[in-house]
Specification:
Strand content: 15-25%
Mean pLDDT: 92
CATH class of the largest domain: Alpha Beta
Number of helices: 7
Number of domains: 2
Number of strands: 9
Strand order of the largest sheet: 3-5-6-9
Largest sheet: 4 strands, mixed
Distance between the termini: 55 Å
Low-confidence stretches: none
Shape: elongated
Order of helices and strands: EHHEEEHEEHHHEEHE
Length: about 230
C-alpha cells in the first residue's frame, strides 16, 4: 500500500524561506513568455501565480481568490503577495476604510521587486529580483501620517487637533468617522508605518522606503536585498 505523504502547514518563516529560494531561482531563468511585455500587471500576475503554485505543491495552505482580495488568507499566514518593478515600486490594493492608512491594512505583505531585462538576441526576459521584503501588518500604515500622529499624541494633542490634521491630509472619512478615528488614535496611538499610501478609489501603495531601508525595523524582514550598500 502506497504511503500518502502529508504536506506541511505553511508558516510565516517557511513563507520567507520559500520567497528567498524563489527569487534566487527565478533570477536565473530566461523567460520567453515575458519577453517584450511592458505591462507590469501582466508580469506581476505571472510571478504571483508561479509562486503560489510553488507553495501549493509543498504546503497545505489556502490560496485566495480575486474575490477574497488576499493571496494567502489563512489566519496563520494572512499575507498578500505584491510584485513590482524597481523602476517604480508600487501597487494598488482594495480600499476598505480610512483606518487602513493609520492603523495598517490588516494583513501582511510579501513584496517582490524585480529589474526586468529583455535580451533581443535570445528573445527572452530576465527578472532579476533585487529586493524581497516581508512587511508585518503592524507596519503597513502610511509612514508620514503615522509619524506625525504619534508626535501629536506625545505633544498632548486633543481630538480637535487630530481631526484638523486628518482633514488636512484628506483622509477619506465623514465627520463621525473622523471623531471616532481621533478618539481611537489618542487612546491607542498607531504603530509607525513604512508604506506610502495615496488616497484613491483603491489605495496606491508605494514601497520605496521599505526597498531602501538600511536599518533594522521590527516587523520588516529583508528576504532578498541586492541593493544594500
Amino acid at each position: 500500500m502506497q504511503e500518502i505523504k502529508l504536506r506541511e502547514e505553511l508558516t510565516i518563516d517557511k513563507l520567507k524561506a520559500e520567497a528567498a529560494a524563489f527569487c534566487i531561482a527565478e533570477s536565473k531563468i530566461q523567460n520567453k513568455l515575458l519577453y517584450g511585455v511592458t505591462d507590469g500587471k501582466a508580469v506581476g500576475t505571472h510571478i504571483e501565480h508561479k509562486f503560489q503554485a510553488q507553495l501549493n505543491s509543498k504546503y497545505n495552505t489556502t490560496i485566495g481568490s480575486s474575490a477574497s482580495g488576499i493571496d494567502l488568507p489563512s489566519d496563520d499566514v494572512l499575507t498578500d503577495i505584491k510584485v513590482t518593478s524597481i523602476k517604480q515600486p508600487q501597487s494598488s490594493c482594495p480600499f476598505k476604510d480610512a483606518k487602513q492608512k493609520i492603523f495598517g491594512l490588516g494583513y501582511n505583505l510579501l513584496v517582490f521587486v524585480y529589474d526586468k531585462i529583455d535580451d533581443p538576441k535570445t528573445k527572452t526576459a530576465k527578472l532579476d529580483f533585487v529586493s524581497c521584503s516581508f512587511i508585518s501588518k503592524e507596519r503597513t500604515a502610511d509612514y508620514t501620517t503615522t509619524y506625525r500622529l504619534r508626535e501629536m499624541v506625545k505633544d498632548k494633542a486633543n481630538v480637535e487637533d487630530i481631526i484638523a490634521y486628518l482633514s488636512d491630509r484628506h483622509i477619506p472619512a465623514d465627520d463621525l468617522t473622523m471623531i471616532q478615528l481621533a478618539e481611537q488614535i489618542l487612546k491607542v496611538p498607531p504603530d509607525q508605518g513604512y508604506l506610502t499610501i495615496s488616497n484613491a478609489l483603491q489605495w496606491r501603495l508605494q514601497y520605496q522606503r521599505v526597498v531602501t531601508l538600511d536599518i533594522e525595523v521590527d516587523g520588516i524582514s529583508k528576504v532578498i536585498d541586492k541593493l544594500a550598500k
